[in-house]
Amino acid sequence: MAADRSTTSEINLRLGDELFARFVPPSTESFPSVAETVYDQLWRRIVNREFRPGDRLVEDALANELGTSRTPVREALLRLGQTGLVQVSSRKGFSVPVITPDDVVELYDLRAALETYAIRRATPLISDEEIEMHRNSQEAVLRQSEERDTATAEAFFRADLALHSVLHSLGGNARSARILSEVMGQLSLISMRASLIPERNQLAIAEHHVILDALAARDPETAAEAMAAHIEAVKTRSLADLEGGVR
Question: Half-sphere exposure of residue 187, counting CA atoms within 13 Å on the CB side?
Answer without folding.
Answer: 28
